[in-house]
Amino acid sequence: MTLKAGLLKNNCNKNINTESKGAKMNESINCDCESELVGIFPCSGSANVGIISNQLALELTKAGKGRMLCTAGVGAKIPVQLKNAEGCDRIVVIDGCPMNCASTIFENAQIAVDKHIVVTELGVKKTRDTDIEDSVIAENMEKCLFLF
Amino acid sequence: MKIEILGTGCKKCIKTKEVVEKALEETGLEAEVVKVEDYETILSYGVMITPGLVIDGEVKLGGKVPSVNDVKGWLAEK
User: Which of A80, A104, A141, B34 is the most exposed place for a label (fewest CB within 10 A)?
Assistant: First the structure.
């Protein structure tokens, strides 16, 4: 029997690691698997509140509160996207309005949601505006952070 | 058989490697084990959270450390 498991080799030109034991892995890139992984899934709808949900997910990711992931991929039941969602320690869904499209996607996929935020419940009226003021994002970002 | 461990290097990535090694040892199977640290390659599999595990091009897991039995099950499918 020949075990090759200890003979890890890198298949890319960067970050070469030649150590087979102890797995001294590259630390030059921030790895996201040390801490609790919070998946943030916005509805990304076309109304102002959907756009805001998307923007909030991005801002929360930038703030280090979690990682924005693909809600559409879960809706389409793409296997690897389902695995991404299932691999999260916590799942936060941000819906724009009470239609709750994003949370329904998770319900249909039978993946439990730990926190459900609805933008209209934060006090934003649903409109067809597509130009979202930075101040609106900032104000609702604060509310989201409080909910986290 | 080719097993790819996707991740940039941390406890969970290292643990995943250990689990794969143990599964191979217990099953007596041979496999080429490759560590993939390049994000472009990781993303090309659609894996957004690491560690990930790919066996013969098929994503088996993302974001979690598999159990030895998980890996043995996937190996048995081959």
Answer: A104
